[in-house]
TrEMBL record:
Taxonomy of the source species: Bacteria, Pseudomonadati, Pseudomonadota, Alphaproteobacteria, Hyphomicrobiales
Enzyme class: transferase
Taxonomic superkingdom: Bacteria
Pfam family, one: GST_N
Name listed for the protein in its UniProt record: Glutathione S-transferase
Species in which this protein is naturally found: Rhizobium esperanzae
Length: 206
């Protein structure tokens, strides 16, 4: 498979969003392949052969098949020789923020997104207790990021990295999902700069 034949399997949800945004931001030569979750395409044996977890995103390239959005962003960066996934002293710090984000920040933002916006699509009722707990936890960890961004324009170093896209994953839905983003001025300012990128605002194929 040539680099021009990279395939990125996606749908319009949180994790595929950051992978698609990274592909566009990096101008990586990928073919976008939409997976229809509503019809259960992710449970088809052909798709499970790509990702046994039955989830998107998935990247197919010369090196094989890769799942997990953060890893995909790193692979895409390497494919175009970008330092969006840095290979210098910044790399350990990027890994720290990716780990922290998955365990704390986007974890709670994604819970609010799911409870508020996704559950009702399938006839479920948002769980008020879960929402309240997620907001409390989000505020706790958002303060850590807000303090960091008071002294830094991006997550790591001086330029955007995969850490920024990972941290921002749930924030496009902040208003609709009730994520208390407005309480954190530095995060708002940092996120506003991301929103200036067309690749971030419009990550999915038309």
């Amino acid at each position: 498979m040539s680099k021009a034949a990279m395939k990125l399997y996606y749908c319009e949800t949180l994790n595929p969003r950051k992978a698609c945004a990274a592909a566009r931001f990096l101008k990586a030569d990928v073919e976008f392949v939409r997976v229809d979750l509503a019809s259960g395409e992710q449970r088809d044996p052909k798709f499970l052969a790509l990702n046994p977890n039955g989830k998107v995103p998935v990247l197919q390239d010369d090196a094989g098949t890769l799942w997990e959005a953060n890893a995909i962003m790193c692979r895409l960066s390497d494919s175009v020789a970008s330092d969006f996934w840095p290979h210098d002293h910044r790399q350990i710090d990027v890994l720290r923020w990716l780990s922290w984000d998955a365990s704390h920040f986007t974890r709670h933002g994604a819970t609010l997104w799911f409870e508020t916006l996704i559950k009702p699509l399938f006839g479920g009722e948002p769980d008020v207790a879960v929402i309240d707990d997620a907001k409390t936890s989000f505020r706790l960890h958002a303060r850590v990021l807000d303090d960091h961004l008071a002294k830094n324009s991006v997550a790591v170093g001086k330029t955007l990295t995969v850490a920024d896209f990972a941290l921002a994953a749930a924030l496009p839905f902040a208003t609709a999902a009730g994520i208390p983003l407005a309480e954190f001025r530095q995060i708002q300012a940092w996120y506003g700069r991301l929103e200036e990128l067309d690749a971030w605002r419009n990550p999915f194929p038309a």
